[in-house]
Amino acid sequence: MSGMNDIEYELWLKDQSKSSTAEMQAAGLCSPAPAGSVLLQIQTEIGTWARATFPTATKESWVAHLRREVEELANSHAPDEAADCLILLLGHAHINGYDLLAAALAKMEVNRNRTWGKPDYEGVVEHIEKPNNSGQPRLADTTKKE
Question: What pLDDT does 37 receive?
Answer without folding.
Answer: 77
